[in-house]
Design brief:
Shape: globular
Largest sheet: 3 strands, mixed
Strand content: 5-15%
Helix content: 40-55%
Strand order of the largest sheet: 4-3-5
Number of strands: 5
Structural class: mainly alpha
Number of helices: 7
């Protein structure tokens, strides 16, 4: 079964890089601040606030939900403001965009550039980042055999998570 293969990939010790997963939103934001500082990036107060909202959500969050939260705090927040912050966070790999549900999640390892697949629960809307670079490498290798040069990868697998299956 595919889920068993994904679990095998995720639990395997043959991945090339170990990833540090940040347990709390506060730790995640601190890691992004550190990565921004190391790269000479400007994490403005608004960008940081959008990042904090995404991290605190614990599941994918839509841009207009972020806008609603910002308006509660600032009143005059506008869509372009949120989208500029999201663009910055995406561009630098601090968050991921889940295309199939048009929502954003924090990245498990924001200090590394990478492309990862996601498992998205259609019941509770949770999203699990599959942290095994072999999945992306396999897609790259298959593309190469067809003479195709990928520019980006988006792999989102929809289904039902373990918790929702138990319910």
């Amino acid at each position: 079964m595919i889920a068993d293969e994904v679990n095998t990939l995720s639990n395997s010790t043959t991945t090339k890089h170990a990833h540090h997963h940040h347990e709390s939103p506060k730790d995640f934001v601190a890691a992004v601040e550190h990565a921004s500082e190391e790269r000479g990036l400007r994490l403005t107060p608004l960008r940081k606030e959008v990042l904090e909202l995404i991290a605190a959500a614990g599941k994918p969050v839509k841009a207009y939900d972020l806008l609603d939260h910002l308006r509660e705090r600032h009143g005059n927040a506008a869509p372009p403001t949120v989208y500029r912050a999201l663009d910055f966070l995406l561009e630098h790999g601090f968050i991921h965009k889940l295309e199939s549900i048009n929502a954003f999640v924090s990245c498990h390892h924001p200090a590394e550039a990478h492309q990862v697949p996601f498992l998205i629960c259609d019941v509770c809307s949770s999203a699990q980042e599959v942290c095994d670079e072999r999945v992306a490498e396999l897609i790259e290798a298959q593309a190469k055999t067809f003479g195709f040069r990928p520019q980006a990868q988006t792999l989102e697998v929809h289904g039902v998570c373990k918790q929702c299956r138990k319910a």
